[in-house]
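haha ok so turns out i had the wrong file open the whole time. this is the CORRECT one, sorry everyone. sequence first:
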Amino acid sequence: MPFDPCMPSPDRPLLVRLRNWVGDVILGLPALQWLAARGYRLQLVGPGWASELLAGHGWPVHRHPATGAERVALWRRLRQEALAVDAGFDRRLNTLVLTHSFSSAWETRRAGLRAIGYATDGRSLLLRRAAPLQRRDHALQVYWDLAGHLLGQPLPAPRRIGLRTPEAGEQQADALLRGIGAGFIVICPFTGGLYEKQRKDWPDFPAFARRLRELGREVLLCPGPGEEAQAQADYPGVTLLPGVRLGAYGALLRRAALVVANDTGPAHLAAAVDAPVLSVLGPTPPEFWGPWGSGVQVLRRWPQWPSVDEVLLATERRLAGLPAPGALAVPPPRQAEPAGALSLMR
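then structure:
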């Protein structure tokens, strides 16, 4: 059989530096699944919570240390472990850097790794291969294309992410939802940071939640650390489930009749587990950062926010199995895609 450079042996390790935000890690997941399907044995480095988020996929996730010296030491250790099972590790591209920072390229270079990443932040000379970045693409496409540069095999990105939730998370979700009837709506009103110096949280979310309750809808909210007090103050009558961990959160969102969310990590999580999502966006452009999946619809009227009535109408139509009026799909529908791209995700 002729040698196929795109089909590495099952004992060929690949080190991967994950991004630092929940949404980014989720949007990078199809690229990781593609690489694993091509035979790479992934060793991931990222935030501590990434281990639980990706637990259903079985990849080792190493916590990214706090200091530069500790990071270089971790990369060196992972390099030595990889060399023990793959004598050719140092003779090929062996590290995928999904982050865009100078420091991530510098740390892998100091550890003696041969990394591929995007040519950003003046780091081209530190990478073994620096790929050009198409900034007008959706973030999922950006991560997917970098995997394609490594494999030397460009393919269209899949229409679904296909995050697997661990069995323990499924059991925790069932326990959390005990006593809660079918047809509940999950709202995700909190969001961190700004987009181009503008707030990303829909200001009418409390009024929207109140209207849902008046219509007899059961509404759930899972506040994260530090969000509990605001959730209690702004969302009376809403069922609050604080402290839900990521593995259980994904399983819980999958059971929802609808998830209504701002530009926030839980929106990407909901889309990744194939939950129906209504994404209410303000300054964030959905063509770059919208939740990705066939069950996603986006409402955006920027520079104005959608009204409560608009979002209520869209919610009722989604619950009835109808498209929301004026909503966008992310990714946009297309005629067809190669079966190979889809088969990796299903």
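The CA atoms of residues 3 and 139 lie 32 Å apart.
again sry for the mixup
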